[in-house]
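Curious: can you check?
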Amino acid sequence: MLSQTIGRICRAILNLMVRGISLLGVNPNLLTFVGFLITLLAAYYLAEGRFFDAGIVIIFSGVFDMLDGRLARITNKVTKFGAFFDSVLDRYSDMALFLGLLIHYARIEEMTYLVLAGVVMMGAVMTSYTRARAESLIPLCKVGFMERPERLVLIIIGALFNKMAPVLWVMAVMSNLTVVHRIVYTWKQASGDSPVEQTDAAPSSDPPRPASHKSAPQGLH
């Protein structure tokens, strides 16, 4: 009951913000880009070891990620390019955050966590890639737990409570298990199909997300 009440309050606040922004004639893609720039600040804080500051900034950038979709729907500016643009900047945002962690652990010479952050980065990239590639072959591939929203929540928790090390272990395992899950799922779904011609070209980012402001009908992620 309490969680539902909080949810309704948050949605009401977001809707008020969106209505106010819509009166200014702001393009939803601009909000997406501003959110990306804010994420770069969070990445800088991670590189500097200012984890708490980074966590606050990531939360703030997430607000823009929620506003752009609602703004597009209210202003009737849902576009395919918007979905593509949102997905591309989500990937850059993810990589920027992990790059910040890589720089931090390199500076303090923590080789174990430097490698671990790299493994998490690979898992994040491949989680997105396996879905995009699978959905060029089968209708849908959203299986697995560790997508972008879950990664962002874990990074925020690790940053705010100074528990980044255990969070990295969780993400390293769960992200790559998600990749394996998607490989197995796609194999099962596509096993009855006829052979297809293989090409070198393949999509490298998430397909338009159902909840995104830029897709008709989700960065994390």
In short: Residues 201-221 have pLDDT under 50 and may be disordered. The domain at 24-189 is CATH 1.20.120.1760 (Four Helix Bundle (Hemerythrin (Met), subunit A)). DSSP finds seven helices and no strands in the chain.
